[in-house]
Amino acid sequence: MFETFLFVLLAVVTTIAAILVIVQRNPVASAIYLIITLFCLAGIYLLLSAPFIAVIQVLVYAGAIMVLFLFVIMLLNLEKEKKLIYRNRLQKVLGVFLGGVLLAQIGMIFSSVLLEGSKGKFPAEKVAALGNTEVVARLLFTDFLLPFEIVSVLLLVAIVGAIVLAKKQI
Amino acid sequence: MLAFVLIAIVKVLVVFTAMLLIVAYMTLMERKVLGHMQVRFGPNRTGPFGLLQPIADGIKLFFKEDIIVPHANRLIYILAPSVMVITALVSFAVIPFGDSVTILGHKVDMVVADVNVGLLYLMAISSLGVYGLVMGGWASNNKYSLLGAIRSSAQMISYELSLGLSIIGVLMITGSLSTVKIVGAQSQVWFVVYQPLGFLIFLISAVAECSRTPFDLTECENELVAGYQTEYSSMKFALYYLAEYAHILVISSLAVTLFFGGWQGPFLPPLVWFLIKVFIFIFFFIWIRATFPRFRYDQLMKFGWKVLFPLSLLNIMITGIVMSVIG
Amino acid sequence: MMITDYLPIFIFLVVAVGFALVTIFLSSIIGKRKITPQKMIPYECGMDPIGQARKPFSVKFYIIAMLFIIFDIEAVFLYPWAVIFKELKIFGLVEMAIFIAILLVGFVYVWKKGALEWE
Fold first, then answer.
1. Of the candidates C1, B3, C46, which has an alpha carbon nearest to the alpha carbon of residue A124?
2. What is the model's pTM?
3. Smallest Cα distance from B87 to chain A, Å
4. What's A1-85's CATH class?
């Protein structure tokens, strides 16, 4: 009962905030609504009994990545570029078409059996008993060791990329 | 279930009120201690020893003119101080301030919420505090505000990194993210003994995180007027102020929880021990304000990235090696 | 049950949001308003404001934010690792040492490139 209420609340806020992200004219306001969206998503993760993922969502997405977004938006100061946005008929038609396709896909998922599905190796009760973080950690650092180490290479590439992109300015 | 909800509501209200009271009297304590350190008296006219000063300040700020400058982005301008104060207050929820007691047959834990990702929750919520600065500074549409906001947000994220890494040593020893379990694990030895380097990094990063002297580049008066708060007045200004002190309170409580055994101690009741330890830290914050001159911004950023960050990684590796050797 | 653990936090959040909104609302009613043209211009130490406030700023800050994300993700991997470190023992230490070593290569690169200098 309480969970249903929370889910509806979070889902509604997430959806409204997500719509506001694309409707807003001001890029900074857009970014702030995106933060709200990500925060509410974390709440939904929590409802799915995944508190570790929920806090990571807030810590990394809302707490770190969005800071970069805001910095970049403020750094570029898109006042002049705002006027340059032109409206293309084709763009609109294509946008409506792709939106329709997405809606159809979502509808198909809802109508399929996907929502029922069978339980996996780690159902919510078992994870809650063992501790969410511990379960994630045990899998990550044993079974998924190689992907974990590859992440470090990926991050290395990101560091080099960030410096190379800004090289002229340093 | 109903009992649980009622207990939760009462706990939240009590903790919330207590936090506001402590924060109010922290401002008085700061002015008093600073005064005596500078051979002055500090506020002493309102009530005995100036004890009514915070209340007078609060009432005064309520009646101040609430200016919303027309060049500001209204909604974000109003939201920014609220974001700051909400994140600062709510992050306290996982700090244990006493042992569990039994009241009318219900076991009541002296912590608002004992969750198994407690520490990460605190880090995550306080990482959102940066938006209060950035939003406020940007929405004010003032050069000082924007410069102050950008500077202090860059400072905060830099030191947040070292802060986050410095507590990993503690996690390795306890093997849990739950703050209650971390306090429980210190019944014999405080973790400051096992983690001296970690504690040092934590302490320095904490001072920088709270934008306190010597790291108060945020409100570097002679360069930036008041930084991101320049255009704020009345209760919105007060909320920023409140958030700043609430942040100090949370960070002090976190330091006590992680490194100084939380509420544990002999003879006195747990809550008293917790408050004593927290107030020692708050005093420390005020003390260094009276002692140190301000850093330069380039020194600050260099120190954070080139000294604290590598040191915190080193601390993790040393802890790992020592633990592996000892077994 | 899991979600009930988080109920107090939810209540705390509601109380804090309520507190912030009520104080801002009350102060906007109670405080008197007297608008003068001077009060309404951006504060610039008494000078008339020159140009726009929202000027582009140094790319340094962008690099700091970028580096923060990358090393924050590193920290996020360290948290669960630290929690089960006692189980992993030497094996865990070695795998994390490799992980940190690879990232340190990037850190040294950033350092040598001078991205951490602020002159």
1. C1
2. 0.88
3. 12
4. mainly alpha
